[in-house]
Amino acid sequence: MFYRTCLQTSAALASISLLAGCGLLSDDASGGKKKIVVGTTSEPTTLDPAAAWDGSWELYRNVFQTLLSFPTGSTTPEPDAAKSCRFTDAGNRVYQCELREGLKFSNGEKLDAVAVKHSLDRIIAINDRGGPRGLLNSLHRIEADGERTVRFLLRSADATFPFVLATPAMSLVPPKKYPADKLRTDGGLTGSGPYVLDSYTKGRKAELKKNGTYRGFAERRNDAVTIRYFPDSGSMVKALHDKQLDVTYRGLGAADVVELRQGTRNDGLRLVETVGADIRYLVFNSKDPQARKPAVRRAIAQLVDRGKLVTAVYRSTAEPLYSMIPKGIAGHSTEFFDVYGEPSVTKARRILRDAGIDERVDLDLWYTTDRYGSATKAEFAELERQLEASGLFDVVVRGKPEREFQRGFRSGSYPVFGRGWFPDFPDPDNFIAPFVGENNVIATPYESPEITEELLPASRRESDRGAVTRDFERAQEIIAKDVRLLPLWQGKLYLAVKEEIGGGERALDPQTVMQLWELYRKASW
Known about the structure:
Elements (H helix, E strand, L loop, with lengths): L12 E4 L19 E5 L16 H7 L4 E2 L8 E2 L2 E6 L6 E6 L13 H14 L12 E7 L3 E6 L6 H5 L29 E7 L3 E6 L13 E6 L3 H9 L5 E3 L4 H9 L6 E6 L4 E6 L9 H10 L2 H7 L5 E3 L14 H6 L4 H10 L6 E8 L6 H15 L3 E8 L1 H9 L5 E6 L27 H12 L8 H14 L2 E7 L1 E6 L2 E2 L17 E2 L4
Parallel strand pairs: 2-11, 2-12, 16-17, 16-18
Antiparallel strand pairs: 1-13, 3-4, 5-6, 6-8, 7-8, 9-10, 10-11, 12-20, 13-20, 14-18, 14-19, 15-19, 21-22
Helix pairs in contact: 6-9, 12-13
């Protein structure tokens, strides 16, 4: 019996037609063999799943399989490479999966229990700093029992473990192509998912074609997809209006969304909007001479005006966020507003002076220039404006491309930096656990024994995920006091889709990862 959550997420999608007098068309046929071209500003940082805990998952979901996955419209993990999975004990510590028969990787290797064990064991063995090792903290060991039975023995109760197995982080890979103790370095990718990666040109495009040996839940409505990667929103939107793209996914700026929503250009496009669970936040490096001071962090929390930020920069295509857990997820609160209230220079000055800080604080803010869209630059300019207008801070904003940016924050070089979080799975655990402890996604250790040793273990013993609200409210009280993390805003995700393309409303799973197999060309216009 699968683990089922009573958590209800805001997964409904609203489609907005931007062509006056133009009705939606029939969804009955795939309409020809022409490749569908998808544009995005979110390029994979690596092709090896053992090294990626980021937007690389957007490619992985389409070329790799996982034991469980999220079929369209589902917020509960359901079988993919597995035929069935269940906890075999009452304490949520032994999880067992039976594989489908006859599974193969695209290179002909058998996808069996040994391959599953190899795929997850190497994540732990390699322990890449940018990889998803942190998602497997509860895993003690894996047992392969025959060809089709895989057993996961957990260190402690973890009712979220099925959700972890459903993430693209747990992509299954063939042992002959992926070493057990190091990353694959030949630039290739081999999986068993709905598509095969036919070719990949870094910084430009990925060519996907239907995998003829795939056996899983996805019902593919097209034969091939081209993903084009763009360095910024402007170049992607230009390609969209030049009719070089059928769909855009991640990267539309606020101005682009407003223009598309208003229909000021009659380009045969419509906008698909999803109420997302992605968030943006600041990270404070506790080893930095300034950011390590609690008073500095709390003063910044007291000054940041989220309302002005989302209005001035994002034109209300995002909304202020006062906790790490966004609206629509159980356990959401407004703890940062409850503690700090409205932005106040007077209160911020008092916080600093009570800590003996009377001079303006010099601070560098860092952001990635090519990960979250071109509006990120304007966002950090607005943060700089707000902090300097207080007279309490001298701020310098610096940006680097994502690859260089990641090296910088992982090495502890940045005092304060901005990151975004797209959920691994729709559970409050996934908005707290990845950010605390020694091995966390921000590569900046955040020790909080009450969260890691009490609150998270208690919540993971509870199968009814709607009953863990108090644990996560308390976790957010701790985070608001520490201000090692400062939530800024919660976003929405928009797709621009040609009218001739169907499936856009079904193409986003609960992790807001695009399922390319849902896209198709309509048979008639």
